[in-house]
């Protein structure tokens, strides 16, 4: 019998790639999104398929799906710092009320549910690299707290449903992931730098650029999530690429990649911007026999091709 999977946040970057993956694996995909930061163009190629349907719905409101459900992937949430600073209450609600609704649905349908957590649960980490055992360093009342705490609550309520209701649950802690279909104006560093290069603007580094990140290409991330869902492991698992780089060196790489003549300019570092971030992926390697395959150079080339293919209108569209 064909497996049925509900994917929330389906019109977003990660959600749309997950829809593609599960379609290609022969699943019946039920996509759900309220389009607050997503775009239907990311999934419009799936609309003609018989094993795909889309619900325009806000998951903080009661979620009803007719028929059986085998799996739920809960990916709905603003994910970039400028998005969640712009819509802080919705961010808290989708992580808390939205997750509660989806756990309730999973319980009713006896479905396995995987929730999208984040490296942000580690906050501005005092331990490096970050392994799943680290409890994190989050400022609950700082501007990023709305996202970090929503995701920490999401993990807690998921474990509570697992422990108290015996629900089959998975938690993926996603580290910075990139690739085609990221929104050009979502403010994250990769679309920001590439967009600036394509528009002929200077590249804006926040702070001195000595903060680090470790970027994972989308196909690697999707494969890790897929393997985790099909495992039987209920505690959190880091999925990311440990190849760490400072934002300053990364800006230099993007200048080379894009061939831009523009320079780097320095702006204030946002409050509580983590100083360093690198996943310890020993657990994912051991448990899932998974490790990232796509080197940054290759992934960034593909990502640049995608952004280059966007229209002038999209390139110059102002959102913020
Ligand atoms: P995205 O903004 O591209 O996608 C999020 C999607 O969720 C959007 O389509 C948006 O419209 C939808 N959404 C938001 N609130 C909703 C609601 N209340 N009801 C229904 N739909 C709603 O972001 P993304 O990068 O694809 O992130 C997807 C998930 O992965 C998020 O949960 C995010 O926290 C998590 N994550 C992503 C990264 C990353 O590097 N991309 C890192 C860590 C965690
Ligand atoms: N950043 C930057 N310039 C930009 C956008 C981001 O220097 O135009 C920095 C940001 O301060 C952070 C890093 O790049 O240190 C990664 O930012 P992003 O928003 O992509 O993700 P996150 O901070 O959530 O890891």
TrEMBL record:
One matching Pfam family: Epimerase
Lineage: Bacteria, Pseudomonadati, Bacteroidota, Flavobacteriia, Flavobacteriales
Classification via Gene3D superfamilies: NAD(P)-binding Rossmann-like Domain
InterPro entries reported in the protein's UniProt record: Epimerase_deHydtase, NAD(P)-bd_dom_sf, UXS-like
Ranges where the NAD-dependent epimerase/dehydratase domain occurs: 5-233
Name of the protein this chain belongs to: UDP-glucuronic acid decarboxylase family protein
Known cofactor(s): NAD(+)
Record keyword Cytoplasm present: no
Protein's organism: Pseudofulvibacter geojedonensis
Classification via SUPFAM superfamilies: NAD(P)-binding Rossmann-fold domains
GO MF annotation: an example: UDP-glucuronate decarboxylase activity
UniProtKB keywords: Decarboxylase, Lyase, NAD
Record-listed E.C. numbers: 4.1.1.35
